[in-house]
Each structure stands twice: as structure tokens, then as C-alpha cells.
Amino acid sequence: MGVSVSANEVADAPQEARERTILGLTGEGWARILAPLAIGIIALGLWEWAVRVNEIPPYILPGPIEVGRTLIRDWHTLQVSLWITLQITFAALFVAAALGLALAVLFAQSRVIELSLFPYAVILQVTPIVAIAPLIIIWVDDIRIALLICAWIVAFFPILSNTTLGLNSADHNLQDLFRLYRASRWQVLMRLRLPTAMPYFLGGLKISGGLALIGAIVAEFVAGTGGRASGLAYRILEAGYNLQIPRMFAALVLVSATGIAIFLAMTLVSHLALRHWHESAMKERK
């Protein structure tokens, strides 16, 4: 005896299977979380096992457990340095985002200005921050401002270049349509070119978030050699000078965790800004 199945039931079955969730996450979502977590746990376990089996002293290579204990024990000191590094990082990222967006808009309005100024932005990007950070720290009396300038130099270019590319990527047919309806340059910018550039700007922001942290850490290393900084990089130098290797690793863990948190935060901002209208963030609809 045959069983009849309607076409709608056949079409809806795969979609219902795809939409099954556990605690709000699909199978793919859980895989993205659990797979890296499992690899990390295995790596930490092998690290701890190697340290214990080979009886490696903590002043050469501490195990993950010892690093965790040090992180808890010295949290009061490390959190102060973490806050200083975060202040510099986010201030540099804000300045880079604001100035990069403003210059990109200026470049989009005048090809002559873009050709005149963009090479200097490239020079800033390719100049090693390690080479110029000592000069900036010497020239600027306020150490916080000096660190901010160093972090800004590293974070500035990706936002400028990505946003400029996005503004220049607006559909030429749509631009012709705007001209046909006699739209002003301001209307073309606000209603066409800026929305087109938004995904590019947010992509540059994700890149610059990590670069701002790197710039701040490098500048703190340079300043820390002279005892003029108190961020996480200074704590790493201080621990190295005193052979407090577990404390050095604890500070490194905070730096890495901060970088991951910044990237995830920028990814969330990008998703929230684009999820309702841009294909890169919208859920697949079939």
C-alpha cells in the first residue's frame, strides 16, 4: 500500500531539520564552539603533562595550572595594567575609526585629494612601529598620548583603505540613476555610497581592533624599557627581569584573551549592523 506525501511536506522537511536547535544553537553552531574548545583542552592537557613528566621548573616553563594560579593570585595587579592597556587600545581604535571614515569620505568626494594624501597613509602603514615608537615617546611628554599615537598609527590604515574601497564600489548604474533624478552629492553619499561602504568599514574595524591592541602593546614595550609605562606589556617585561615566568605567562594570557574579546565584539557589532539588510550577515533563506 503506497503512502502519498505532498510536495509541501517534502519541501518543508529539510528546512525543519535545519532549524532544530539545542539551547538556541544549531548543530553547526555547537560544532563551531565545541571543536575549538576540545582542541584547546587537549593542547593544555598535553602541555601540563609534558611539564610534569619532564619535571620542567616553573621559571623555565610553567604549566597551565600554575599559570592559572598566578593569574588568580596576581589579579589585583594585572587588572590595573589590563585596564590601562584597554583604555589606550579603545581610544586608538575610536580615533582611527573616526579619522579613517572622515578621510575616506573626503577621498570619495575628490579624486585629486585621494591621489595626494593616500600615499602618505601607505607610508604610515609600512613604517615599522617598533622603529618610530621610541621617537614618539621622546617627542611627546605625556606617555598616554604617546602610546595612543603609536596604537593609532597601526590601526588607522585598514579602516581608511577598506572604507575608501567601499565608497568607490557603489553601483555605477545606481549612481547614474541618482544623477538622473538630480540627487545632490550629499544625497548620493548618505543614501548610496555610505550604505555600500558600511560592510567594508566594519570589516576594517574588525582588523583594526586587533591591530590597535598590538600597537598599544608594542608601544608599552618600548616605554616599559625605560620604566615609563604600567600596562600589560610592562608587566611582562617586569616579570621577565625578575624571572617570574608564571606571571609573564599570566599577562600573556590576558593579552591573548583581550585580543579575542575585541575581535568577537567587533564581529558582533558587524553582525548586528548588517543582519537585516546585507547578504554577508543575513541567514540563508531557502
Brief rundown of the structure:
This protein is an all-alpha fold. It has eleven helices and no strands. This is ABC transporter ATP-binding protein.
Please describe what this structure looks like.
One of its GO terms (cellular component) is plasma membrane. It is found in: Cell membrane. GO terms for molecular function: ATP binding. This is ABC transporter ATP-binding protein. This protein has helices at residues 7-18, 27-53, 64-73, 75-109, 111-126, 129-139, 143-167, 172-180, 185-224, 232-241, 245-274. With 286 residues, it is mainly alpha-helical. The radius of gyration is 25 Å and the shape is flat. Residues 1-5 have low confidence and may be disordered.
Question: Taking all residues together, what is the mean pLDDT?
Answer: 87
CATH class of the largest domain: Mainly Alpha
What percent strand? under 5%
Q: Give the overall shape, derived from the CA principal axes.
A: flat
Question: Number of helical segments?
Answer: 11
Ranges where pLDDT stays below 50 over 5 or more residues in a row are 1-5
* Count of distinct structural domains: 2
How many beta-strand segments?
0
Membrane topology: Multi-pass membrane protein
GO molecular function: ATP binding
Family: Belongs to the binding-protein-dependent transport system permease family.
Transmembrane segments: 30-50, 80-105, 117-139, 145-167, 211-237, 249-274
